[in-house]
Write a structure and sequence with these properties.
This protein is α/β, with parallel strands linked by helices. The strands form 4 sheets. Strands 1, 2, 3, 7, 9, 10, 11 and 12 form an 8-stranded mixed sheet that branches. Strand 4 and strand 5 form a beta hairpin.
Length: 485
C-alpha cells in the first residue's frame, strides 16, 4: 500500500475570491505560480459570511444547522459557543489514522475547545477562551472597554469613522506585521523544515488573520499598487432603497468616507492580499526545503469574503451579497491533478473540503457530510449530477437576523426573516442592484427558489421552520419541501 499524502492548509481570513486566480485582482505572484501547478475553483463559496460558522463547516463538512456554530463564539451575546456534541472533525480522522497534526494561527471554531482537543498539536497550546460554566455569562471586557473611552473627535482623520459612544474606527493604515501573522507563518514554517521525509504522514494548518479589517499593511506592499489604478465598483452608487433597511443602516457608517477614502481602502485591502501572498510564499519555500513537495497536498483558501466597497459596504455581514461569500480555493497535488493549471467553474462549498481530504488520505467515508468530495474534479471526471445551486445559512453574528439564501446560475433569492426578501437576476444584474422580490412576474421564481431552499433546509436539519404567526415570515413555508403549495 502506498504512503498517504501529507496535507498543508493555508487559510486566510476575509479574502475575496477575485483577489486570487483565476481573476487575481491583487499582486500575488506566488498564487499565480501555484495556480499553474494545481487547480483553481473559481466559484467557491462559504456557507455563512462569518469566521466561526464557516471555519466549523470547513473542518466538519457540515452546515451550521448540523455543526451548531452560528456566530462569533467569543462574544458576550453569542448564540453558540462551539460545536454540537458528537460532531467530528476531519482532523480527528487523520489523527486516528496515524497522521501527525500541527496547528498554527487562528482557530475560532469553539470558545470551549482548542485545536488540541481535536487532534492537533501546537507549539504554544492555548487555553480555551472560557469554561462551560463561564459560557452563559457576560464577559467582563464587554463593558470594561467603554469605561475609559476617549471623547469622540470633532473632525475625522483620514480613513476614520466617528462613532460616539463606541470609539473612533480607523478603516485602513500602515503597520508592520499586522495581526502578528508573521509569527504564525514563522511557527508553521519552522515545523515544516523540521519534518523528516519518509516519516509519518502529516497535516499542517496555518491560519493568518489577514486580510481582515481594519486594513493595516506594511508600506512596501502598498507600493505595489498604483492609487490611480483603483476604481470604485459599479454597485457603489446603489443606494439600496429596494433592500432591507439594515443594509442602508450598515452603509451609513461607511458613508462618512469620501470616494477617495473608499478607493484608498480598496488599495489597502488589495495590498493586504499581496502581503498574505508573500507569507504563503514563505510557507511554500519551507515545504520545498523539507523535500516533501511531491508528497504533499497544498490547499489555499479563506473562510469568507469582503464587500470591498460594493454597494458602499465593507467587511462582511448580513447584507447578503455574493462578495461576502466568494472565497479563493486552490489545490495542488503533484502528479495527481490532470492538466494542472485548470480552472473549475462549478459551485463549490467550504463543506466540500473535509470529505475531499479524507478521500485523498484514502480513509473511509464513515458518516454523512453536507459537502461532496472534489477528487473527481482533480482527476478531470466531474459528476454530471454536481450541484447546480449553492446555499447559505445565517442567524446573524453579533447582530442577529434570520437569513437563508439559494443561488443558481441565473437567480439569487434571499429570505430575510427580519425584513423584506431579495431576488436578483444575475444574468441581467450581476452586481445585485435591482431587487425583483416584489415584482409579481417573479412569483413563480420565488416559489421555485423557496422549494429548493426548504428542501435543502430539511436535508440539513435546519430548525429555521417555526410556524408561529409572529415569526413565520417566509413568503412560502417549509411545506414546499414536501410538495405543499
Amino acid at each position: 500500500m502506498s504512503r498517504p499524502p501529507n496535507f498543508l492548509i493555508f487559510m486566510t481570513d476575509q479574502q475575496r475570491g477575485d483577489t486570487a486566480p483565476p481573476v487575481l485582482r491583487a499582486p500575488a505572484p506566488n498564487l499565480a505560480r501555484f495556480a499553474g501547478e494545481g487547480i483553481a475553483f473559481s466559484r467557491a463559496y462559504c456557507p455563512s459570511p462569518h469566521c466561526c460558522p464557516s471555519r466549523a463547516s470547513f473542518f466538519s463538512g457540515l452546515f451550521p444547522s448540523e455543526h451548531g456554530v452560528w456566530n462569533n463564539v467569543d462574544v458576550g451575546n453569542a448564540l453558540s459557543r462551539g460545536l454540537y456534541d458528537g460532531v467530528r472533525l476531519f482532523s480527528e480522522d487523520l489523527r486516528d489514522a496515524g497522521y501527525d497534526l500541527h496547528y498554527s494561527g487562528k482557530w475560532h471554531v469553539s470558545a470551549l475547545e482548542t485545536p488540541v482537543d481535536r487532534g492537533w498539536r501546537m507549539t504554544r497550546p492555548p487555553k480555551p477562551v472560557m469554561t462551560r460554566e463561564e459560557a452563559g455569562r457576560p464577559r467582563p471586557f464587554e463593558w470594561k472597554q467603554y469605561e475609559k473611552l476617549p471623547p469622540t473627535p470633532r473632525t475625522r482623520g483620514d480613513g476614520e469613522i466617528l462613532r460616539p459612544g463606541y470609539g473612533t474606527y480607523t478603516h485602513y493604515g500602515e503597520r508592520e506585521n499586522p495581526f502578528g501573522d508573521e509569527e504564525v507563518v514563522a511557527d508553521g514554517a519552522s515545523v515544516l523544515r523540521e519534518r523528516k521525509k519518509g516519516g509519518d504522514p502529516w497535516c499542517q494548518f496555518i491560519g493568518p488573520v489577514g486580510p481582515h479589517d481594519p486594513y493595516f499593511v506594511p508600506p512596501r506592499f502598498l507600493d505595489l499598487i498604483d492609487p490611480k489604478s483603483i476604481e470604485l465598483p459599479a454597485s457603489f452608487a446603489d443606494a439600496m432603497a429596494d433592500k432591507p433597511a439594515l443594509y442602508r443602516k450598515t452603509r451609513s457608517r461607511f458613508d462618512q468616507l469620501t470616494p477617495r477614502e473608499h478607493r484608498e481602502a480598496i488599495r489597502h485591502y488589495l495590498a493586504f492580499c499581496a502581503y498574505e501572498d508573500h507569507l504563503f510564499g514563505e510557507v511554500l519555500r519551507a515545504l520545498a526545503e523539507s523535500g516533501q513537495e511531491e508528497e504533499t497536498v497544498v490547499l489555499y483558501l479563506s473562510d469568507h469574503g469582503d464587500y470591498m466597497a460594493e454597494h458602499g459596504l465593507w467587511c462582511k455581514g448580513l447584507p447578503s451579497f455574493r462578495s461576502a461569500y466568494h472565497i479563493p480555493a486552490l489545490l495542488r497535488h503533484p502528479g495527481k491533478i490532470r492538466d494542472p493549471g485548470r480552472v473549475v467553474d462549478r459551485f463549490v462549498s467550504l463543506a466540500d473540503f473535509a470529505p475531499t481530504i479524507l478521500e485523498l488520505a484514502d480513509l473511509p467515508r464513515a458518516r454523512r457530510f453536507a459537502g461532496e468530495s472534489l477528487v473527481p474534479f482533480l482527476e478531470g471526471r466531474p459528476s454530471p449530477r454536481w450541484r447546480d445551486a449553492w446555499f447559505t445559512q445565517s442567524n446573524g453574528n453579533e447582530l442577529y437576523g434570520i437569513q437563508r439564501t439559494v443561488t443558481t446560475e441565473k437567480w439569487r433569492y434571499v429570505y430575510n426573516g427580519f425584513d423584506e426578501d431579495e431576488l436578483y437576476d444575475l444574468e441581467a444584474d450581476p452586481g445585485e442592484c435591482r431587487n425583483l422580490a416584489r415584482d409579481p412576474a417573479c412569483a413563480p421564481v420565488i416559489k421555485a427558489c423557496s422549494k429548493r431552499l426548504w428542501t435543502f433546509a430539511h436535508e440539513n436539519q435546519d430548525t429555521c421552520v417555526n410556524r408561529y404567526i409572529m415569526v413565520a415570515h417566509a413568503p412560502m413555508g417549509p411545506g414546499l419541501a414536501f410538495g405543499e403549495a
